[in-house]
Amino acid sequence: xxxxxxxxxxxxxxxxxxxxxxxxxxxxxxxxxxxxxxxxxxxxxxxxxxxxxxxxxxxxxxxxxxxxxxxxxxxxxxxxxxxxxxxxxxxxxxxxxxxxxxxxxxxxxxxxxxxxxxxxxxxxxxxxxxxxxxxxxxxxxxxxxxxxxxxxxxxxxxxxxxxxxxxxxxxxxxxxxxxxxxxxxxxxxxxxxxxxxxxxxxxxxxxxxxxxxxxxxxxxxxxxxxxxxxxxxxxxxxxxxxxxxxxxxxxxxxxxxxxxxxxxxxxxxxxxxxxxxxxxxxxxxxxxxxxxxxxxxxxxxxxxxxxxxxxxx
Amino acid sequence: xxxxxxxxxxxxxxxxxxxxxxxxxxxxxxxxxxxxxxxxxxxxxxxxxxxxxxxxxxxxxxxxxxxxxxxxxxxxxxxxxxxxxxxxxxxxxxxxxxxxxxxxxxxxxxxxxxxxxxxxxxxxxxxxxxxxxxxxx
Lengths: 313, 137
Known about the structure:
The complex is a heterodimer. By secondary structure, chain A is an alpha/beta fold. Chain A has two domains: 6-214, P-loop containing nucleotide triphosphate hydrolases (Rossmann fold, 3-Layer(aba) Sandwich), CATH 3.40.50.300; 219-312, no CATH class. Chain A contains twelve helices and 14 strands. Chain A has helices at residues 44-51, 74-77, 95-105, 111-120, 134-147, 164-176, 192-198, 216-222, 234-237, 268-274, 287-295, 299-312; strands at residues 6-15, 18-28, 33-37, 59-64, 67-68, 80-83, 152-156, 184-188, 201-206, 209-214, 223-230, 247-253, 256-262, 277-283. The longest helix of chain A has 14 residues, at 134-147. Chain B is mainly alpha-helical. Chain B has two domains: 12-75, Winged helix-like DNA-binding domain superfamily/Winged helix DNA-binding domain (Arc Repressor Mutant, subunit A, Orthogonal Bundle), CATH 1.10.10; 84-124, no CATH class. Helix content of chain B is 53%, strand content 7%. Chain B has six helices and three strands; from the N terminus they run H-E-H-H-E-E-H-H-H. Chain B has a three-stranded antiparallel beta sheet. The interface between A and B is medium-sized, with 27 and 22 residues.
């Protein structure tokens, strides 16, 4: 058994002359739910495709379950479940016919799991696939992926466009229909409330690189959020990016300055007081705010500069 | 019923710890009562079971609940886990921290004290209740 279930070494992927993955490295141990988070175009789907061997990397190598992604054998493929946002299914079949076909393909097929998931989505065997709703299609894809008893489950924005009921069924099925000790889930989503609910580890991707892999709580702890007001002439007194190198975000709301800093070692409150802040307050940070501040770092600062210019005019 | 919210500054496992601790302190969960299983609570809240397991480990560490083999987790009888000196020290630290945060807001002392006792009284903790034998004396 390989030490890591999923590995990527120095993966680069170029589409024409756009670099989508940039010397990406990733090593995931067995078990747990790993949530990949990043803006649109960060390279999440491409990474999944490279791992699954659906796309060839320009350079570097990837492996799943100890097998090179470019040479996945049918046996290894049988241990990998994949659900993406398209939920592509054979439209002309009925649920029942598809079930029968899938069953014959996978020796490890767990019919109890399959039936339970189908039940969670209120699917009936006689239904035609072309007439299923988006939520039902997602349910059927998930049921098939879980029933094959996967050791790795890769989910690419599986809940995109699902209503609240279907989403609830989706997570109930994902989290509770089988034993998780033997399944590693790699998942990406733009819904932070989902990530907060299900992720054991958070993987932040940005411009084709992996920025951090850690527990969501640990990530939140790295970010400090301070609010302070300054004496007269605040524009000149409030310390800006040049004085705070680890600044993620600085916003002025009414008369207060809202600072978000990353990995600040020294006492940031004391620093603000030195610069004339009145009673600076540290506020707790939620996961979605922390991720938002991290992914938009720099952007807000540029915008701030622009606003200052406007104010001066 | 424990409730959690996403988007809260507290991680979900902390919300569970706080929720159960509050229920114990306010007497809603009495000593000896069983708390939901890890899987049960995870299903109730649709969250990862590992998150609940982490919260329960913390509660066990704090001595608020204990595992009885094969039966589940139960609320412990109230007992003092920290020495008097340590309790005194921790209270002092938190009071200092609180004062540092609010001193700049320039409220009269009495207002601050009133606000604090109002909030504490609203909790209806075991120590405040008239049933507490210590209080009755």
